[in-house]
User: What shape does this take?
Amino acid sequence: MTNRILVVEDEAAISEMVGLALARAGYEYDIAHDAEQALALIAQQPPLLIVLDWMLPGLSGIDLARRVKREERTRAIPIIMLTARGEEADKVRGLEVGADDYLTKPFSLSELLARIKAVLRRTAPQATDDVIEVEGLRLDPVSHVVTGHGRALAMGPTEFRLLHFFMSHAGRVYSRNQLLDLVWGSNVYVGERTVDVHIRRLRKVLEQHGHDTLIQTVRGSGYRFAQPLKAVAG
Ligand code: CA
Assistant: This one.
């Protein structure tokens, strides 16, 4: 499990160039040359985001986007689509099936990276007011109350935001840099070590009921909130 962006593009020159730019920006990436390959990679591990070319051999980009947005497990994965110049209808259809943004070819890599950042920030579902509960750890975003097996857990506002983010993004790995972007916001001037400091404080609070192990350190990548095991019906 890792922090990967999936690039779906059959033109090798473009996919390789995008891959290199992503790597330079600190992301990991996979390249799929068609939708079938993309679906196989998504089934293995839902990526952080998908950069999706519209014109693919076989199943089209729009069909792939539709499938991703239809499935409960993959619905939240943001999609940035790549369209050919002047294909207005593609953009409209893409946004209709749930793509989060689009770029028209030819595009610059810095533009793509900026869009990725913006989409990740926008789609961070911290806006929901739903109560989240995992293994007896319960967070209420409205009242700002966190309890462990019914007992209140006191924590600072940053630890609260961090925990809310983790609990609503369980199972995915985030680098320190991404946590800074997504939890602290883009206009703060703190370093990556700040993340470690607040993670340590948060774990300390969660230790009281053994919930600290839910926040996992992924060596060389960052942090992940453990995905709760789901009961399988039938
Ligand atoms: Ca193509």
Remarks:
- Residues 132-225 form a domain with the Arc Repressor Mutant, subunit A fold (CATH 1.10.10.10).
- The longest helix spans residues 109-123.
